[in-house]
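ESCALATION

Customer reports they have been waiting on this structure for their group meeting. Please prioritize. Original submission:
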Amino acid sequence: MPRSTCLATTSLVSGALIAIATATLPSSAHVARGRQSMEQCVERVLSRLARARADEVQVGPTVLSQCDGPLRAALVDAIQSGEAPLCTVESCMGMARSRASDEATAEYRHRLRPR
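Update from on-call: job pushed to the front of the queue and completed.
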């Protein structure tokens, strides 16, 4: 699998961690649902971890275990919409998981940063 193709897919997944207002593909409503589901899952997990003041090393593994379904759905949606045409779930899931973990941890740090 070309690295650039997997990187494009992980960009989709990382987009689930930030609010995505619009998408440009004709099937964007379907892809947006996958992203929205992932975004909502990550938000729930990060909120719960922040309330508990969990150590940041727990963030990535917790997000991945509790949001595996939405992450997989977002990846499937991207593949089916043509946004990640050369990916399969198997070939890009590892990179998507790594990126989602990194992005969630960065967001968690941002939330806990003193203002």
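Sent to customer with the following note: Residues 3-19+33-112 form one domain.
Escalation resolved.
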